[in-house]
Every structure is written in C-alpha cells, then in structure tokens.
Amino acid sequence: MSKRSTAQQVADVAGVSKWTVIRAFTPGASITNKSKAKVMEAAASLNYSPNLLARSLATNKTQQVAVLVDDFSNPQKLPFLETLTDQFQAEGIAVLLININRHFDHVDALLHADQRQVDAVILFGTAFRDETLPELRDGRALPPVFVLARDSQLADVPAIVCDAEHAIRVIVDHLHERGYRKPGFMTGAQVLSTALKRRQFYEEFWSRKGIATKAVISADRYSYQAGSDAFAEYFEATPASDRVDVLMCENDILAIGAMDEARGRRGLRVPEDLAFVGFDNFDLGGTEAFSLTTYEQPREHMVRTLIDMVMGRREIATMSLPGRLVVRRST
Amino acid sequence: MSKRSTAQQVADVAGVSKWTVIRAFTPGASITNKSKAKVMEAAASLNYSPNLLARSLATNKTQQVAVLVDDFSNPQKLPFLETLTDQFQAEGIAVLLININRHFDHVDALLHADQRQVDAVILFGTAFRDETLPELRDGRALPPVFVLARDSQLADVPAIVCDAEHAIRVIVDHLHERGYRKPGFMTGAQVLSTALKRRQFYEEFWSRKGIATKAVISADRYSYQAGSDAFAEYFEATPASDRVDVLMCENDILAIGAMDEARGRRGLRVPEDLAFVGFDNFDLGGTEAFSLTTYEQPREHMVRTLIDMVMGRREIATMSLPGRLVVRRST
DNA sequence: TTGTATGCGTTATCAC
DNA sequence: GTGATAACGCATACAA
Asked: pTM for the complete prediction?
C-alpha cells in the first residue's frame, strides 16, 4: 500500500530541492521552464499532487467553506446546493455541508466550522437567532459569515436574498389584472423576518389598489402537511361567502399542500373557485397536476453574488436581487 | 482581530506544558483532574479549541469524507443528504459535498478528494466506469471508495443498495393481487446495471405468474419531462387494445411525468384505465394529486450500514437491504 | 532562478 | 503524570 508522495520525494527524483517543486506547483512563481518540466515529469511518475491539508496549515486558508442547512424539507434546497457546489468548485473551493438539527445546533455548527478553519460560513436558509453571533464573536476570530436566501438582522452580516418587494409587487399586479379581489396570504413562520416582509408587502401592495387582505392563514411549518392542515382549518372556520378568491402561499410546498386540500378534499376548482400562488418555482410546481403560478428566485445570480463577496471581488453588503414571475394555470 | 488561540497559549496561562493541554483534550489520556481543571479553565478563558487541520496533518486522519453526486434532479437526493450528514456528524465526521458535472468529472472529483486527504469517498447515486478506478489506483493510495444507492461493478468496491429483488417481488405480488394482468415497465437508462436488474426482476416475477410483460418503455433520463415524453410516444404508437393496464416506472419522477401525461393530456383515469407504480417514495408522491404507490428505500438503514463500514465496525462488503412497499391510490 | 532556515498547530513517542 | 524531541507536508522570507 503506497502512501501519497511528497514534494521532497519528487525533488529527489527530479534532482532539485523541494522548494523548486513547490514553485512548479505555484502559479506565477519564478522558475525556469526547464526546471519546471523536470519537476512535472518526476511528479507525474510519482503521481504527486500537493497535500491540500498541509498547504492549508501553512497558508491559513483552507479553500473550504461551510454551508449550514437546518431544514431539508424544502426541495428547493437541492438546486441551490447544486449551484453552490458548482460555482464554488469553479473557484477551487470545496463545500462542507453541515446539517443543523436537534443533535447539532447553530452554535455547535458554527464552532465546528471554525475548528475546521473554513474560509467562510454560509447560513443557507437557516433560522439563526440574531443575538447568537455577536456573543460567539466576542473574543473569537470567527470566519466571515454570510446569509443566503434569508434576511439578516445584523448590520455586519450580509444577506443575499431574493427581492421581496419586487416579487410581491409583480405578483399582486398579476393577480389584480386577472381580476382577483379577495386576496389571502398563507405564512409558514410568524417569527421569520423574511416571512414577515413578504406578508407586509403583500398587504401593502393590495391596499394601494384599495383592496384589503381578507385573510392571513398561519401554517406552523413549511411543509405540505402544514399547508394542507392550515387550509383545512381555515375552510372549516370560514363561511363560503367570506372566503378569499386567491391565496398566495409563502412557498411552493405550502401552496401544494393547500391546493391539494382545497381541490382534492374540499372540491374547489382551481383557479375558478380559488387561485393559488407559490414561491420558489420548485420542479413539481410545473407539473400538469399542479401547474402552480409562482415566483422564481434568481438562484444563479444570488450564488454568484455571494461567491464574489466570499472571494473578495465585490464589496460585502446585503443584496436584494429580483427574480421572475412564472405564470401557470393556478391563477 | 484576534486569532485562534493555540495549545501553547493555553499552556502558558495554565502554567503547564502544551502537551498537558493536548492531554486535557484527549479523551482517556492520563492526566490528573487538577491539571485538567487548570487547563480547561485557561482554555475557556481563551476560547481555545483544537485546530482540526493541524490535528489532521499529524494524525493522517481528516475526519472528513467526500460525497460525490452527479445528478441533483432527483429530489430523493435531499433526504439522503440529510441522513448522511446527520449520521456522519454523529460520528464527528464532516461531509464534503462534491458536484460531478461537465466541468468536474469523476476522476477530477476523486483526485480532488484525495488531495484533501478525506478518509473515505462515497459515490452517491453514481458510479465509476469499470476501468477508471483500477487505473487510478495504480501507483496511488486512494481513500476507500463506497457506492451508495447504485450497484458497483467492481468486486473490491462495496455498494450499499436497496434490495431490488425484494422490491420488485412485493410490487409484482401487489399488482397481481389487485388484478392487473398487462404489466409495463418504464426505464430511465438502458445501460445502468441497477436499472437493468429492476427490469429483469420485473419480467421474471411476472412470468412466474404466467404473465408476459407487455411493454418496456424507455425514457432517456430520469426526469419528469422524459417520463412524460416517453409515455406520450408509447400512447401514440400503441392501439388502445394493446396498452398496458399498469406501468411500473423506475423512479417516482418518471412515474409522475408519465401519470401527468396519461391523466392530464390523454384523459386516462388512474388507476381504472392505467395504474402506476414508482420507486423511492419522494415527498410529493404522497400528495392528493398523485397518490402514487411506490417502494421506499431503507434510507436510514442503508446509511447506517455504510457508516458502519466506513468506521470499521462492519465488514466491508456489498449489501442489499430491503425497503417497504407504500400502497396509495395509483394502483 | 535556486537553495536554506523557520514556522504553521498538532500528535506520537520516548525519557523522566 | 509530565515535559521534551521529532515529525506531518507545505509556504514564506531571505540569502546565495
């Protein structure tokens, strides 16, 4: 069982010093083509490649970032992870996926990432209590922290989010144009600022058109079941004449849950009796069975912006990026 | 900007040598309670925690594994990633998520993981071409490689898979019992051995009941669209009297696509005119709108088995684990 | 352009 | 039980 070969071994074979070997593997280092060729040949014969671990220890850069996720129930996470890994890898940076759950909370995760010397921490869609971070930072040199796809309350923690104002404005305009006049909103979490913002914009843009939001329905989580249950409860509690004619749900999963309940178990026609709008444009919203009107987050753009900040190519600041409305048959 | 403190600094504060500090952080090391208390107090005041990078360099273990994924289109990947990260983290092991795509192929990914000195490589839902791995291994000390949720062709590369024989047997039994007699099968890839196996078992178990599989439909990928297109083509090309009465699709995504096409655009009733079975039990198969009968892979069990092998607690060998049939209204 | 000394923070091993 | 020496593999700074 052969071990990995080291720069020294390559140096011995090539007949140079190990520092010359290092130079051959350092882009832009001053080295003659001849030396470099010798080194590369020796390196190839030994299957040498630099030990990134040792390099990290010496440079104090791991070329590794931690992505923290605390909710795997939204399928939308998957394309985001694809984009994140793809674009980070293009920069030579590896992604450490850290699962925040009941065994491993936000603080554990952050400290663990710190112990692994990651170059940056991405809070991806996680619910982070705002006080936690300043407390942790006290007396510690934590890696830079970024928030992706969720708001940040902390002035010094940048968030890269979908532009909620734009999103809700185009949604409300679309609904109004289609003739809906009894709007409702379904939220998945009352405490989350991102959620709160969407709801506030929704009510505001409708009221600018002289229309009051008729109902705000609260699901307790962002799940199919929660959306379904919340709608059922609303349906039972509200006489037909009082019901909304369009329901905007805070994400696609909630919308699917609510729509299934409305259509499958309550016999409503979509969109004639009740229209639905979601948020995220996850894959299955586009199926014949749901055909859900929704708003698509500018995933590529968000991730590129994030990475530009992480790489120091762009000023670190909170950014709100516009996505696009996807109109289907549910409205 | 304070840097991370080191064992030496803690030692200075505690008035001991740095090796004593190390011992305080090494479970089971011989150290007096008094020393340990002193060290811990000093460590707490300095917010010290061991630098895992330096530890890795010294121990030649990174406590890090690479998980390679080459297809993020199947939502089923997400719960698997959740389980993987959860269970690995419980062992103190971090997961490096590596995206295999057109910019970064299997070989790149494996060599990169090797450069990062990971303790193991998990090929999740993807596999090497037969020749590749032995070639790479020649003259190199690669980390142990495991295949998860796909077959392995290589004798020395263990695969942890769902038991296809059990799965197909219970599916066929169920379909037969329900009275279906004109079975069809939709496959997403003709070359994949996992796919081939499922199809062969399907035909075999039906034929044991004296029934021939009426049609094998080929989609070219595992996507909603591919399932939909493949079914449309089949539907056009086959007279009504010749059509199957139940279609088992190789995964849920294909099934959803095919079902949507059959029901939404071709006016078939499910399951009266045509029944559907999927594979994976992904979230949305359980919705009212689809209510898809499917087979659930034993995710937790598979991952636990994998991790036991990685941790050296179990003999390294290919394992086939039974899942369970989930009956819904599509059959 | 190339070689040398030194440091990164930890662990393994041995002497006390 | 504790301290000391060496080593992990590479990079930085400096001297030649």
From this structure: 0.95
